[in-house]
Write a structure and sequence with these properties.
Elements: E1 8-11, H1 15-26, E2 31-35, H2 45-54, E3 71-75, H3 76-79, E4 88-91, H4 97-110, E5 116-119, H5 126-129, H6 135-139, E6 141-146, E7 155-160, H7 166-179, E8 183-186, H8 195-213, H9 217-223, H10 236-242, H11 244-257, H12 271-279, E9 291-294, E10 297-302, E11 307-309, H13 317-322, H14 328-336, H15 341-359, H16 368-379, H17 385-392, H18 394-403, H19 410-417, E12 424-426, E13 431-434, E14 441-443, H20 453-458, E15 462-466, E16 469-475, E17 478-483, H21 492-508, E18 511-514, H22 527-535, H23 539-558, E19 563-565, E20 569-572, H24 574-581, E21 584-588, E22 591-594, H25 608-617, H26 624-639, H27 647-652, E23 661-663, H28 669-682, E24 694-696, H29 698-714, H30 720-733, E25 742-744, H31 746-761, H32 764-776
Parallel strand pairs: 1-2, 1-4, 2-3, 4-5, 5-6, 7-8, 17-18, 18-19, 19-21, 20-22, 21-23
Antiparallel strand pairs: 6-7, 9-10, 10-11, 12-13, 13-14, 15-16, 16-17, 24-25
């Protein structure tokens, strides 16, 4: 499999092609990126400019800027023969059938036998594109539809052609999962495949209901976002992000080609949207679409007047009563019980999505779970349509549909006639789905490398829990500490749970994984509780909390069993300190780590400063100049709250060690972490002793940092209070009130961290920063 992807060619250096090339480079696969020849001496300028633009894109398509070196540029006329040395050729040119067919005709002249060939089309027929190609070509031909942006979107739709070898399809599926980190679903060669077929229906039906029930654009986005388990981009922000013209092209393709679809007329967009496209108001790429930014204001388009206006807050009485409910299914269940406009909108939209999705089985996919996965991985829904249908009550929803004179597909009726009348069933040792073809429940294919904490909870593997954390038995003698609070913040109860459990875990387990499967690993300490304690001047409580946190991170390092952290996505503040205190880490490639406490008017006080001193000064051979330079780097990283853009960059910033592992597929993270615990245990793990010889650089280094702070403040790079915080940080990193460099213990640095943290808690401007951060999600510059 690795030999298959030793080199890849990407044909087309547009937005998708360039970013597919970038993600291949991210995983160390050399890429040949080709596009049309340019006029002038640099005939490969189109591809070259596309690679240069990768470094300017935000979010970045590259894990680190140096990955771009793995991309070689060229053009179709001069460099197409080079594809002969590639094992996989991916085409991502314009969505026009004749253009794709002509290009593949040229490619086949140079392609080596057995080379995999695939198209990234989002909706054209896979078989039509390759209709005139040779039989050998067709055996190695398939669709590989990446979702935009390829680095960040999990979904990869794999679409076999009529003559594709099954072993080839399976190889590409494995490459997608194991090497590229994708969630792969196998789609059929139907218009727009799975995700865009359902997604386009959702968009167009939402717009139709908006018009029928007279909602505004911003009201619809309020109702179709996190409230129902969909992303913040909701409906119209998403269309602006994707491009209104792209959304309409997808709908038009369905209208032209899905001729047997009973909802076909829905895919004819209303005239007002066609007019937006005609005017070039296409969304973010054109500066305006459904929304338009003017200065700091975000205006919304009004279809009635064809003008932009101020947004009106969605004032729905029903939302005030459901917004506090804990999850999307419970909020939806409460809303659809109401017969007001909001209840009608949510019911009609979701029930139509349920029925439309069910009607597409087995047209677009043999198994309905592939539709659920496609919508979760391609559109970032919390639940797929069948998962949500089941959560709301399959029988209850079907009964209401029947009362309204709407029929469910026969296969859904067979689910209702089965036992236990569910789409999915989790048993004591396995999980099942209802197989449409056989009419029987079938066991999901075993995936031992994908541990699922939710299933382990159903199987009663919880050892202990508090409202903010749980201990779960991962199997094979390894336990898992999982944070479960809102955005996985760390509270005193979570700290106490771990501290009180170590002795018990030591008797029964070989080691511990710290990880979870929420949206983020951990965004740090619970600032709401800290703000309340500061307002009530509970200094002893704050001191006790800091000491307990320090004891936890120290205990992790000093425990007799190995501890492996499994960080992913946002890992901030105290979350970083937990990783720093672990023996090892297995990090998701998409890990964004940063000691960001200065944004809250604080400094790291859970061992973060101490660990950064150790990591930045390790191996500097006691060279004072070199040590001072490394401490400056550590200081600036923490003082500017720098967050890594990937796990690879986290290594460069020393949040991760060179020996820490990086896992490309998020679903394999806990498995890899458990395996690392077992590897350490099998290797005769011995806990490290607390260091007594950490360099504290003292007054000379502190003076240099204070000069740096003065220059940053004078240059307007930091505010007055930021300079105060930075001064406290500098004092801690250089070892406190020391006249000269010396060696000190870990406890020395921990004491300095506590002292600085508590003194900053006593500052009114710190409380201002915390409250502003809690209220707006953005740091205050005071």
């Amino acid at each position: 499999m690795e030999q298959l992807v030793s080199q890849v060619a990407v044909l087309g250096a547009g937005t998708m092609g360039a970013q597919i090339a970038a993600h291949l480079a991210n995983v160390d696969i050399p890429v040949l990126l080709l596009d049309i020849p340019a006029d002038g001496p640099d005939r490969s300028r189109v591809s070259r400019d596309a690679v240069a633009n990768l470094g300017r894109m935000r979010p970045s398509p590259l894990y680190t800027p140096d990955k771009a070196r793995l991309i070689t540029v060229g053009n179709f006329e001069d460099d197409l023969p080079k594809v002969a040395s590639c094992q996989w050729i991916i085409e991502a040119v314009i969505e026009q059938l004749d253009v794709k067919q002509e290009l593949w005709e040229q490619v086949e002249e140079h392609r080596s036998p057995n080379t995999v060939v695939s198209t990234n089309t989002s909706g054209l027929s896979i078989n039509e594109i390759a209709r005139q190609r040779s039989r050998e070509f067709k055996k190695h031909w398939l669709g590989t539809h990446f979702f935009n942006p390829p680095r960040y979107m999990k979904l990869l739709e794999v679409i076999p052609g009529e003559e594709s070898e099954p072993s080839l399809v399976e190889s590409i599926r494995l490459i997608g999962e194991r090497i590229l980190g994708k969630g792969t679903v196998q789609a059929k060669d139907t218009p727009n495949f799975i995700a865009n077929r359902i997604g386009s229906f959702v968009s167009m039906r939402t717009i139709e209901l908006m018009n029928e029930l007279q909602f505004s654009i911003e009201e619809v986005d309020t109702l179709t976002g996190p409230l129902i388990g969909w992303p913040k981009t909701a409906t119209f922000h998403l269309a602006d992000l994707v491009g209104i013209d792209v959304m309409m092209l997808v709908a038009e393709n369905l209208y032209q080609n899905a001729v047997t679809d009973s909802w076909r007329e829905l895919f004819c967009p209303p005239t007002w949207i066609n007019e937006l496209v005609k005017r070039g108001w296409l969304g973010r790429k054109s500066g305006q679409g459904f929304y338009k930014k003017e200065g700091s204001r975000l205006l919304v388009f009004d279809p009635a007047t064809f003008e932009y206006r101020e947004q009106n807050p969605a004032d729905f009485e029903l939302l005030s009563s459901v917004s506090s409910l804990p999850d999307a299914p419970s909020r939806i269940a409460a809303m659809i019980e109401s017969d007001d406009r909001v209840g009608q909108f949510i019911w009609r939209l979701l029930s139509d999505i349920f029925l439309y999705s069910a009607e597409r089985v087995p047209e677009i996919a043999d198994h309905y779970y592939q539709i659920d996965r496609a919508m979760k991985w391609g559109f970032n829904w919390e639940s797929g349509p069948f998962e949500l249908w089941q959560a709301l009550g399959l029988e209850k929803v079907c009964s209401r549909l029947k009362s309204e004179g709407r029929e469910v597909p026969d296969w859904v009726s067979r689910v209702l006639a089965s036992s236990p009348r569910r789409f999915y069933v989790v048993g004591p040792s396995e999980a099942f789905y209802f197989d449409v073809e056989s009419g029987q429940y079938q066991e999901f294919p075993e995936e031992p490398e994908k541990l699922n904490l939710e299933i382990l909870r159903v199987r009663e593997q919880v050892i202990d829990s508090t409202p903010g954390a749980s201990l779960i038995d991962l199997g094979e003698g390894v336990a898992c500490l999982e944070f479960t609070g809102k955005v996985n913040t760390i509270d005193d109860q979570a700290v106490e749970l771990l501290l009180s459990s170590l002795e018990r875990l030591e008797r029964s387990f070989l080691g511990l994984v710290i990880g979870n499967q929420g949206k983020d690993f951990c965004v740090g300490a619970n600032l709401k509780f800290l703000a309340r304690a500061i307002e009530e001047k509970k200094w002893e409580q704050i001191d006790r909390s800091v000491r307990n946190f320090q004891q936890m991170t120290s205990s992790l390092r000093g425990w007799s069993r190995p501890v492996v952290a499994a960080p992913f996505r946002r890992v901030l503040g105290g979350g970083v300190e937990i990783c720093l205190g672990s023996d090892a880490a297995v990090a998701s490639a998409e890990t964004y780590m940063g000691l960001v406490e200065v944004g809250a008017g604080l400094i790291p006080a859970g061992g973060g400063c101490k660990e950064m001193v150790i990591r930045y000064l390790n191996g500097t051979d006691q060279d004072p100049a070199l040590q001072s330079e490394f401490i400056r780097q550590a200081f600036e990283m923490i003082a500017t709250a720098r967050v890594s853009g990937s796990a690879l960059e986290a290594r460069q910033l020393r949040y991760l060690r060179p020996s820490d592992l990086i896992e490309i597929h998020p679903d394999r993270l806990l498995y890899r972490a458990r395996k690392q615990v077992l590897n350490l245990a099998d290797g005769g793990y011995v806990a490290p002793r607390p260091k007594q010889d950490i360099p504290a650089l003292g007054a000379p280094a502190l003076a240099a940092l204070k000069l740096r702070i003065h220059l940053m403040k004078s240059g307007g790079f930091i505010s007055e209070y930021h300079a105060v915080i930075a001064g406290k940080l500098a004092t801690v990193l250089t070892g406190g009130d020391l006249n000269h460099a010396t060696l000190v213990s870990e406890e020395h640095f921990l004491s300095l961290e506590r002292e600085a943290f508590l003194s900053l808690c006593g500052e009114e401007r710190t409380l201002q920063r915390i409250n502003h951060l809690l209220g707006t999600g953005k740091p205050l510059r005071n």
